[in-house]
Design a protein that fits this description.
alpha+beta
């Protein structure tokens, strides 16, 4: 009987640790207008690369090149349908956000307005964070380069709770549709 409780308590403690263990995602993005490239990288704990590569457009959508021989094709028509599905992005907590834009005088007004809007929005949504920085560099010539670094925090408990909320809303909408059909 004692061995059963020992194994049960070890499993329970392991599950608790796994649920509340913090995960850190680091995303780096770089856009260069002159080369028409958008490069990205997503890593777990800054060490474990999850995905990375560059994105280009083609006639029917966007191609994500994740290796020299592999590309993920996303049609423009599929983007709207994928957006409406359950998104784990709501579950992530923003820890730091750093964006740097290097631009010439031609794009200065638009880039400075975009920087102001992004920084105001992020401070409005997450006013306690001090790790939100925005840099604007003015250079000579027709240049527009934007670089960003984002650090996100999550744990499995947060993901499970968001998934339960999603299921609850889905069940409510299905029940509402069923009752509307039965009334008519």
């Amino acid at each position: 009987m004692g061995r059963f409780f020992l194994i049960l308590s070890i499993v329970f403690l392991s599950l608790l640790v796994l649920l509340f263990f913090p995960f850190w995602l680091d995303a780096d993005v770089h856009y260069d207008m002159n080369k028409s490239k958008f490069a990205f990288s997503v890593a777990l704990f800054k060490k474990i690369k999850l995905i990375g590569g560059y994105a280009t457009t083609y006639r029917g959508g966007v191609a994500l090149h994740v290796s020299p021989e592999k590309a993920i094709l996303i049609d423009y028509s599929e983007m709207n349908g994928k957006r409406k599905k359950f998104s784990f992005m709501k579950s992530f907590r923003l820890q730091s956000f750093v964006i740097t834009a290097e631009t010439g005088a031609e794009y200065l007004l638009g880039v400075s307005l975009a920087h102001t809007f992004v920084q105001t929005y992020l401070l409005y949504k997450d006013s306690e964070r001090k790790n939100i920085r925005s840099n604007l560099w003015l250079t000579d010539g027709d240049i527009l380069k934007i670089t960003g670094h984002i650090t996100l925090f999550f744990n499995l408990f947060i993901l499970v709770m968001e998934f339960i909320k999603f299921l609850k809303e889905k069940i409510k909408s299905i029940c509402r549709k069923k009752t509307e059909k039965s009334i008519i």
